[in-house]
Design brief:
There is one protein chain. The chain has two domains: 3-101, Immunoglobulins (Immunoglobulin-like, Sandwich); 121-169. Strands 1, 2, 3, 4, 5, 6, 7, 8, 9 and 10 form a ten-stranded antiparallel sheet that branches. Strand 2 (12-15) and strand 3 (18-28) form a beta hairpin. The protein has 169 residues and is α+β, with helices and mostly antiparallel strands. It has one helix spanning 128-168; strands at 3-4, 12-15, 18-28, 33-41, 47-53, 60-68, 71-78, 84-90, 95-96, 100-101.
Length: 169
């Protein structure tokens, strides 16, 4: 099943030797995604490498191609994961960027699964799933208060009966 996405381009400012960076998922399948990663370099660099890591997976080093105007990028296939990316400008004092995730760079990793409707937002900006759990929490709270009230009021009735029986003797 192949899904193609229209991308909303989000650029993150990395600072230091790096300007803005972005990641766009061009297609997303169950086992592979096609992603375009791009970064602006504000210093003269011989090359730029993107280091990708995810949990205990082996780290990936992807060389970025010079796209002109100080912009370096690559388009590659990866497993669909929210990798952490660190950019390295080689030859410019070997500058490193701060770690950022693909999602922070603007990658949309949410697949459109047939038969599953996405969570829609209600009037107050909460998704239907959040609202459902909110109502469940409210119902559990009301039930707990009812049990507490029954326990407290039930205990008072027995105490009064016990006091009455001792007074009669």
């Amino acid at each position: 099943m192949k899904l193609v996405y229209l991308a909303l381009v989000v650029a993150v400012e990395l600072g230091g030797a790096f300007g803005s960076a972005s990641a766009t998922v061009e297609s997303l399948e169950d086992t592979v995604m096609l992603v375009d990663i791009e970064v602006e370099v504000s210093v003269s660099a011989q090359s730029v490498v993107a280091h990708l890591t995810f949990d205990d997976d082996a780290p990936l080093a992807l060389p970025l191609l010079d796209r002109g105007g100080g912009v370096f990028g690559t388009r590659t296939e990866l497993e669909p994961k929210n990798y952490i990316v660190i950019f390295e400008a080689v030859g410019a004092g070997d500058a490193l960027s701060r770690p950022v995730s693909l999602v922070e760079l603007g990658a949309d990793l949410t697949p459109d699964v047939p038969g599953v409707t996405p969570a829609t937002e209600g009037d107050d900006g909460l998704s239907s799933v959040t609202l459902r759990f909110g109502w469940l929490a409210l119902a559990l709270g009301a039930a707990s208060l009812s049990v507490l009230a029954f326990w407290v009021l039930g205990g008072r009735g027995k105490s009064a009966d016990a006091d009455d029986s001792t007074e009669e003797e």
